[in-house]
Amino acid sequence: MVGGPQRPLLIALILLGVCFQGIRLHQARPGEPRKPFFERFRRLEEQFRRFQEVTLVHLQEIAANHNVSYNADASFRHLEDKQAALESATNATHATLHEELQRLKGWTKKLQNKTKKVDLRVLALEESLQERERQGTAEREAQKALLSNLTQEVARGGEDTQAVW
Fold first, then answer.
1. Taking Cα atoms as reference points, which of 19, 113, 11 lies closest to residue 54?
2. For 3-12, how does the pLDDT look when each residue is reduced to its tens digit (9 = 90+)?
3. Cα-to-chain-centroid distance, residue 49
4. Nearest of 113, 131, 111 to residue 123 by alpha carbon
5. Which of these, 63, 62, 43, lies nearest to 51 by C-alpha position?
C-alpha cells in the first residue's frame, strides 16, 4: 500500500499518462482530417480541471483525517498530563495529611498524659480537702467538747466559789 502523501501524486501521474494516451489517439492519422488544435487543447484543459478538483477533494479528505488523528493524539496527551498532575497532587495531599495525622496523634498523646496528671492532682487535692474537712470537723467537735467541759467546770467552779464565800 502506498503512503498517504504519495498517493495523490501517484494518481496525478496515472491521470496524466491517460490524458497523454488520449491525445496520441486523437492525433490525426495519415488518412484522417486533423482536429483543430484548440479543440484538443480545450478538452485537455477540461480533463486537467477535473483532475485538479478530484485531487483537491482527495487532499482535503486526507487533511481532515490527519487533523482528526492529530487532535485525538493531542487530546489523549492532554488527558494523560492532567491525570499525572492529579496523581501528583493526590500523592502530595496524602503525604501532607499523613504528616498532619502523625503530628495530631503525638499531640493527642501528650494531651492525654497531661490530662491524666491533672486528674491525679485534682483527685489528690479532693482527698486532701476531704481529709482536712474531716479533721476540721473532728477538731471542732473536740473544741466544742472542751468548751462544753470548760463551761461545766467554770459553772462548778462558780458554785464552789460561792460555797466558799
1. 11
2. 566 777 777 7
3. 58
4. 131
5. 43
